[in-house]
Specification:
Elements lengths: L4 E4 L7 H4 L7 E6 L8 E5 L6 H16 L3 E4 L5 H11 L4 E4 L13 H10 L1 E4 L11 H11 L3 E4 L7 H11 L3 E4 L10 H8 L3 E2 L3 H9 L5 H7 L28 H7 L7 E2 H8 L3 H13 L3 E4 L3 E4 L2
Parallel strand pairs: 3-4, 3-7, 4-5, 5-6, 7-8, 8-9
Antiparallel strand pairs: 1-2, 2-6, 10-12, 11-12
Helix pairs in contact: 2-3, 2-8, 2-12, 3-4, 5-6, 10-12, 11-12
């Protein structure tokens, strides 16, 4: 097992952003690279039981952010977290996983290889001593660390009641930039993210969008909290997010792969497998292109995971 280091709040190399939140952890246990030498951090969080769309978007954003020079931070949970970490790793970048257990314990167990890879290219972090098990109340508590380490938080998919929304509330109280990826109105896993956008979170669909959002002036924590209501009840007009471009403003898909696939999508619903066969494209490329075409409004998803043109 790799060496476990302990950082105390008073140490010079304790992460500076985290040090200044309201309740910083008195100590951090770490495995991997030193946190204080890593590039600026951005958190990506989402549903554990996310859709294929959520997986594809989390992976895409993790990869793009790492390619832009950011460190991707998440919680190493199943679903969106894992795909965000993997995207950063595949880009050759750095990624940090904040655990709700000791850093010597892999939770969930099936993420053993991912954990080993993160230790090599980034860092595993926890406020809990080695040997501490993954208890339910640890996870909401650790979410303040995910947001506390970061300049901003991106919510990929989140149901109406979701741990990702706890992280979003932590981000607001800490004065961090809050961003969200839009999702289908027919998908219960998109309710939380769509509501965040409605209430003022920046709408993002790419690493470049996130980079631009982070560059904008940030309100004070109190002002930020008032624009995105922490309880998701007080509905306010969307101010921070820019409206999504209409399909008419984007006459053609933005990449060769998307354009190639789009030629085979009609107003008759087809599955991803059918589109893979018709376009002679690998299914992984098809799923990624479908996700982006759906985000930009060129297609929509119907019952039975079929896809049709909207323009």
């Amino acid at each position: 097992m790799s060496e476990i280091d302990m950082l105390l709040l008073a140490d010079e190399n304790y992460p500076s952003l985290l040090k200044h939140i309201a309740d910083p952890p008195p100590q951090l246990y770490c495995r991997g690279k030193a946190l204080d030498i890593m590039p600026p951090m951005v958190g990506i969080v989402g549903a554990r039981r996310c859709t294929e769309y959520g997986e594809s978007v989390a992976y895409k954003l993790g990869k793009e952010l790492a390619s832009l020079g950011f460190t991707v931070v998440s919680g190493m949970a199943g679903g969106a977290d894992s795909f965000a970490h993997q995207g950063a790793l595949d880009a050759g970048g750095t990624t940090v996983a904040v655990l709700g257990c000791g850093v010597d314990i892999c939770y969930p167990r099936h993420n053993r290889q991912l954990m080993d890879d993160i230790i090599k290219q980034g860092c595993i972090v926890s406020e809990y001593p080695p040997g501490t098990g993954a208890l339910a109340h640890h996870f909401p508590q650790r979410n303040r660390i995910i947001s506390g380490l970061c300049m901003g938080i991106v919510v990929v998919e989140a149901a109406a009641r979701s741990g990702s929304l706890i992280t979003a509330r932590c981000a607001l109280s800490q004065g961090r930039r809050l961003m969200a990826v839009p999702g289908s109105v027919f998908n219960e896993h998109s309710i939380g993210a769509n509501a965040l956008i409605r209430d003022g979170a920046a709408l993002v669909t790419s690493g470049q969008d996130i980079q631009a959002a982070l560059a904008e002036p940030l309100d004070t924590p109190a002002q930020a909290t008032s624009s995105v209501n922490k309880t998701m009840i007080d509905r306010k007009p969307m101010a921070a997010a820019q409206p999504k471009p209409s399909p008419a403003a984007r006459p053609a898909p933005s990449t060769p792969l998307e354009a190639r696939l789009y030629e085979h999508i009609s107003y008759e619903a087809r599955t991803a497998d059918e589109l893979s066969y018709r376009s002679d494209m690998h299914i992984k490329d098809v799923l990624g292109a479908l996700s982006m075409l759906e985000i930009h409004g060129f297609i929509r998803r119907t019952q039975g995971q079929r896809f049709v043109r909207t323009v």
